[in-house]
Amino acid sequence: MNWELKKTGCALALAMTTAMFAMPATAVERATLRLAHNLDPSHTLAQTFDKFADDVKELSGGKMKIRIYPSGQMGETREVLEMMQQGAMDMTKGFAGELESFEPSYFVFNVPYLFNNDQHLKDVIYGDVGADLDKLTAGKGFFNLASYAGGTRSIYTNKPIRTPEDMAGLKIRVMPTPTTNAMIELMGGAPAPIPWGETYTAIQQGVIDGAENNEPSYISSRHFEVSKYFSEDQHTVVVDYLVFATKTWEGLSEEQRAILIQAAENSEKFQQELWDKQVVEARAMAKEAGTEFVEVDKAAFRAAVQPLIDDLMKDENKRQWIERIQAAGK
Description:
- Strands 1, 2, 3, 4, 5, 6, 7, 8 and 9 form a nine-stranded mixed β-sheet that branches.
- β1 (31-36), α2 and β2 (64-69) form a beta-alpha-beta unit.
- Helices cover 45% and strands 19% of the residues.
- With 330 residues, it is of the alpha/beta class.
């Protein structure tokens, strides 16, 4: 992809923001774009994408519309990303762990205990490190139009997990990445890289013992019904993106791109406000449904996964990414 396309669009978005509503409707060409994701409509990001679609329609005077396909109607994220590469879909929700399969440098978000806190994560994804990561997907057929920080991932099962010893033999659903698989193995568990949409039934039927994610996803997926212990090891962060197809972007006018970029920036602010609110609501709902939030020995988990970090640091490219993120948190 010609990365200058997005940069040009960003400059236009800034210049057009104050004049957008005064723009004649005829100045923007008509377009209907498709956005497919695998989230329940109640999920924070699903609501964020609804807001994005509303803003695109409003900013374009009704000329541009976003048609959303939620709940995995078009398949899991990897399948949709492949459709985007072929020009058969325009946008999707991309989790950093899923993007690692297309661009290895996204491994950094799967490195356990790399980020100090939420602010450290935001400084990375909205700063120079995040911008450089975004550029790396440029040749893959898509790029990140918006970035969303989504807290941390923890393990939930039907038994309390307090130490790595409690993980022995447990099959935990994970994203299918080498980094995540190695992390779960070092914690004592067995990684089970099954599709997100099949996780509820797999836990219910005893095919796996649990999964790992953040609180709103735990609630929106209804996994709290089949996994009653949410063990707060907070091993990795959650970073999602609004991923846009290169072929689609290159076919849009500068005015259309500017509208999409402005709506994407609005969506980032909307998501953070909604996220903070939904974390509180999700925890309250889980407790009311009988979930026990378990305090874990984080020092023991950090020690268990240290061999993974040591191994990653042997690779010069990976070491540089890790060190850049560590420096951003100082």
